[in-house]
Amino acid sequence: MRSVYDPVHLRTFLAVAQTLSFTQAARRLGVRQSTVSQHVRRLEVAAGRQLFTRDTHSVRLTEDGEAMVGFARTILDAQERAAAYFTGNRPRGRLRFGASEDFVLSRLPEILRTFRREHPEVDLELTVALSGTLHRQLDAGRLDLVLAKRASGGGHGELVWRDTLSWIGAPRLSPDPDRPVPLIVFPPPGITRARALEALHSHGRAWRVVCTSTSLSALIAAARAELGVMAHTRGLVPPGLEPVPARAGLPELGDVDFVLLHGHRPGASRGTREAADALAASILAGGDRLHRPEPPL
Question: Mind listing the pLDDT tens digit for each residue in 157-173?
Answer without folding.
Answer: 888 888 889 999 999 88
